[in-house]
């Protein structure tokens, strides 16, 4: 009864203030529309990076300098430039290279925050959810090519939980009001299994389906950044702040921040950027810039690592996610279809701030364990199916203005230091726009800048304006692209996908006419690498991680695509052979450490104990010696090539070398019997899947057995 009273009271409160809040939102949207079209100086072609750097160096003074090119920093730059403020933005790595590209890919209000708001009658938490749901609606509207509603299933295994969760999810719909994406609904057990056949059947009572938004986070971040650039903001990636510039206030004599001394990381050139206001939007690195301002400043950032894994698409339906509301340690796990794969996460572990977070094996196994709890026993969840894994650092913050400086702020904070440095920290992806608006409002007030109200509500992001759901059909018809490639281009570049299609090379085939793929199983094409340079990509990592998402989807596929990517970039950017090799090695290191390739490859080396039965060992030895005809105890590419020639199978020598290298643990150029047995043991345990050598040798063995013994006459031997 007490629970019902709490829910009734909370719902009454929501209804009372719902109309007032929505009136305010639509009034602001009407204001933006009434202002008419904003001027877009670079509507067609963007300035090059060199031109942007020249503007940064030669402008006498900007109104606003934003440090940080993540979602929040880019949002601040867009908010500022659309208020007619002279705006600059610098990012020491690539745009969206940090936390903003490593999210759960959801645009959501936060179901669990609403649960806390209801149970504790916490108005602050309620307003946080309310704001996020408004921002969710806005983001889905301004970038329709990069985002879409996604149904998420909450399976229920106890009868009493069905009305409990249903009331909570209906409250979520109610708080969204007229911006509710689609109404939630209850499913019977049979219907839930029909929609999500991989789900565990045992004790399943039914399920509740609700809707949130999903997006391509790195591309969304880039769209915000490029929109700011098109409106006239001077932006530059790979440009770090060395130290802040200060000058005495003429009235008080107090030192005030007036810009930053920066370094172009690519060329090493250093220069000053002067600005009336500097905004610190550096996410997990918030305290680093605050300490540049004042060494005595206390840390406010308490970083937390969130790991995600990507597994094959067959683990989830094409258009239905799953929410585990209470994992074994009380966390929430999402299990979502994304880019035709399945993404699962996240963890929440205290960590140190680093620019290169590494996914840990314990976190990967924790997620796999939780996934197993919800999937049918018929579905074997294997460690070897993890195609990529990454860690993102969530910048949780304490409020420096609060008396209790140890307590974590549940939302974001905007702080202005004594010297005028404006810091925006905390928050979530979904609310980047409202955070930016609040930050600019505070900056304008503190620095007496001449600017009107924010104009970013309803402002279409780059590529969104000319997008339609059927745009991909025109790409197929006008350019002769594959259907899958055309759909990918439309969903990535929106209205600008025609620019990418125009750059696509002729394949020389009957179909597709244009569009050479970087790797066969993904729809990324070579012209995207060329276009990425126009979007300020400077390294091969920029292309595999953020312009395309190949590194986040499949590390092995990304590794295979790298040589061609480096070749194309090298030609466009006039790289030397040494530079090409450096780029290749840097990108391989990125995949190895930050995208989980190291953790994946270690699964073989960890299987040191060969736990196979005598019968299995005999079977695998027989297979091995079909290749090792001389009983050397090892096989090389020559041995494999000879067997394949007998079967009239041709594999490129370089590809064959790569296949053996995956299993060659001691890197001596050959695969020994023990290494092969370790491989087969790891395959059986599920630690490794899709091993090319294992599949190749099994297929070749079956082919040899079907052929039978070769006659003396045919072999050319005998006397």
Automatic annotation (TrEMBL):
<keyword id="KW-0496">Mitochondrion</keyword>
<keyword id="KW-0560">Oxidoreductase</keyword>
<keyword id="KW-0106">Calcium</keyword>
<dbReference type="GO" id="GO:0006072">
    <property type="term" value="P:glycerol-3-phosphate metabolic process"/>
</dbReference>
<dbReference type="InterPro" id="IPR038299">
    <property type="entry name" value="DAO_C_sf"/>
</dbReference>
<dbReference type="InterPro" id="IPR036188">
    <property type="entry name" value="FAD/NAD-bd_sf"/>
</dbReference>
<dbReference type="GO" id="GO:0005509">
    <property type="term" value="F:calcium ion binding"/>
</dbReference>
<comment type="similarity">
    <text>Belongs to the FAD-dependent glycerol-3-phosphate dehydrogenase family.</text>
</comment>
<dbReference type="InterPro" id="IPR006076">
    <property type="entry name" value="FAD-dep_OxRdtase"/>
</dbReference>
<dbReference type="Pfam" id="PF13499">
    <property type="entry name" value="EF-hand_7"/>
</dbReference>
<dbReference type="Pfam" id="PF01266">
    <property type="entry name" value="DAO"/>
</dbReference>
<keyword id="KW-0809">Transit peptide</keyword>
<dbReference type="InterPro" id="IPR002048">
    <property type="entry name" value="EF_hand_dom"/>
</dbReference>
<keyword id="KW-0274">FAD</keyword>
<comment type="pathway">
    <text>Polyol metabolism; glycerol degradation.</text>
</comment>
<protein>
    <recommendedName>
        <fullName>Glycerol-3-phosphate dehydrogenase, mitochondrial</fullName>
        <ecNumber>1.1.5.3</ecNumber>
    </recommendedName>
</protein>
<dbReference type="InterPro" id="IPR011992">
    <property type="entry name" value="EF-hand-dom_pair"/>
</dbReference>
<dbReference type="Pfam" id="PF16901">
    <property type="entry name" value="DAO_C"/>
</dbReference>
<dbReference type="GO" id="GO:0004368">
    <property type="term" value="F:glycerol-3-phosphate dehydrogenase (quinone) activity"/>
</dbReference>
<feature type="domain" description="EF-hand">
    <location>
        <begin position="651"/>
        <end position="686"/>
    </location>
</feature>
<dbReference type="GO" id="GO:0005739">
    <property type="term" value="C:mitochondrion"/>
</dbReference>
<keyword id="KW-0479">Metal-binding</keyword>
<keyword id="KW-0677">Repeat</keyword>
<dbReference type="InterPro" id="IPR018247">
    <property type="entry name" value="EF_Hand_1_Ca_BS"/>
</dbReference>
<comment type="function">
    <text>Calcium-responsive mitochondrial glycerol-3-phosphate dehydrogenase which seems to be a key component of the pancreatic beta-cell glucose-sensing device.</text>
</comment>
<dbReference type="InterPro" id="IPR031656">
    <property type="entry name" value="DAO_C"/>
</dbReference>
<keyword id="KW-0285">Flavoprotein</keyword>
<feature type="domain" description="EF-hand">
    <location>
        <begin position="615"/>
        <end position="650"/>
    </location>
</feature>
<dbReference type="InterPro" id="IPR000447">
    <property type="entry name" value="G3P_DH_FAD-dep"/>
</dbReference>
């Amino acid at each position: 009864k007490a629970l019902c009273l709490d829910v009734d009271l909370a719902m009454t409160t929501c209804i009372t203030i719902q109309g007032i809040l929505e009136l305010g939102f639509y009034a602001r949207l009407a204001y933006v529309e009434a202002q008419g079209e904003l001027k877009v100086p670079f509507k067609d072609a963007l300035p090059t990076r060199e031109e942007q750097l020249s503007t940064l160096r030669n402008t006498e003074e900007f109104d606003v300098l934003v440090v940080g090119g993540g979602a929040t920093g880019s949002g601040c730059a867009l908010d500022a430039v659309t208020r007619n403020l002279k705006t600059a933005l610098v990012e020491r790595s690539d745009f969206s290279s940090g936390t903003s590209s490593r999210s759960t890919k959801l645009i959501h209000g936060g179901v669990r925050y609403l649960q806390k708001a209801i149970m504790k009658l916490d108005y602050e938490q309620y307003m946080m959810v309310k704001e996020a749901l408004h921002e969710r609606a806005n983001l889905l509207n301004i970038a329709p090519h990069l985002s879409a509603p996604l149904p998420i299933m909450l399976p229920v295994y106890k009868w009493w939980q069905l009305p409990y969760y249903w009331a909570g999810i209906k409250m979520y719909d109610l708080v969204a009001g007229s911006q509710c994406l689609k109404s939630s609904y209850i499913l019977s057990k049979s219907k839930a299994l029909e929609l999500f056949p991989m789900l565990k059947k045992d004790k399943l009572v039914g399920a509740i389906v609700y809707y949130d938004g999903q997006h391509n986070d790195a591309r969304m971040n880039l769209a915000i950044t490029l929109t700011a650039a098109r409106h006239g903001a001077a932006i530059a990636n790979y440009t770090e702040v060395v130290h802040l510039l200060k000058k005495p206030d003429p009235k008080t004599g107090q030192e005030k921040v007036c810009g930053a001394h920066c370094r172009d990381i690519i060329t090493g050139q250093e220069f000053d950027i002067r600005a009336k206001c500097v905004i610190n939007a550096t996410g997990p690195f918030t305290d680093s810039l605050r300490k540049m301002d004042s060494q005595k400043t206390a840390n406010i950032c308490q970083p937390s690592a969130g790991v995600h894994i990507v597994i094959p698409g067959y683990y989830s339906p094409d258009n239905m996610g799953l929410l585990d509301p209470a994992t074994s340690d009380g966390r929430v796990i999402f299990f979502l279809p994304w880019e035709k794969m399945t993404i699962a996460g996240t963890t929440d572990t205290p960590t140190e701030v680093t620019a290169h977070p590494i996914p840990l094996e314990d976190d990967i196994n924790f997620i796999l364990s939780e996934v197993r709890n919800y999937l049918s026993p018929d579905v074997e969840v294997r460690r070897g199916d993890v195609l990529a894994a990454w860690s993102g650092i969530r910048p949780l913050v304490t409020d420096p203005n609060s008396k209790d400086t140890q307590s974590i702020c549940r939302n974001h904070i905007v702080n202005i230091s004594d010297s005028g440095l404006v810091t925006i920290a905390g928050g979530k992806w979904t609310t980047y726009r409202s955070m930016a608006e609040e930050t600019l409002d505070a900056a304008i007030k503190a620095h007496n800048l001449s600017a009107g109200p924010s104009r970013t509500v309803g402002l279409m992001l780059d590529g969104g304006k000319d997008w339609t759901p059927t745009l991909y059909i025109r790409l197929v018809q006008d350019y002769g692209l594959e259907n899958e490639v055309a759909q990918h281009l439309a969903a990535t570049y929106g209205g600008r996908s025609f620019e990418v299609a125009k750059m696509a090379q002729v394949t020389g085939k009957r179909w597709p006419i244009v569009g050479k793929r970087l790797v066969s199983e993904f729809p990324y094409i070579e012209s995207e690498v060329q276009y990425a340079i126009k979007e300020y990509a400077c390294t091969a990592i920029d292309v595999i991680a953020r312009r395309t998402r190949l590194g986040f989807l499949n590390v092995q596929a990304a590794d295979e695509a790298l040589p061609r990517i480096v070749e194309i970039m090298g030609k466009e950017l006039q790289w030397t052979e040494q530079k090409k090799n450096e780029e290749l090695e840097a990108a391989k290191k990125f995949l190895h450490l930050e995208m989980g390739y190291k953790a994946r490859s270690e699964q073989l080396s960890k299987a040191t104990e060969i736990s196979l039965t005598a019968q299995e060992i005999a079977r695998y030895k027989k297979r091995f010696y079909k290749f090792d005809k001389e009983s050397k105890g090892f096989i090389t590419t020559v041995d494999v090539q000879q067997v394949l020639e007998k079967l009239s199978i041709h594999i490129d020598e370089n590809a064959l070398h790569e296949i053996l290298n995956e299993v060659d643990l001691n890197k001596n150029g050959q695969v020994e019997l023990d290494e092969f047995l370790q491989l087969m043991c790891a395959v059986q345990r599920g630690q490794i899947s899709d091993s090319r050598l294992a599949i190749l040798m099994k297929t070749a063995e079956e082919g040899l057995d079907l052929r039978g013994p070769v006659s003396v006459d045919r072999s050319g031997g005998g006397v």
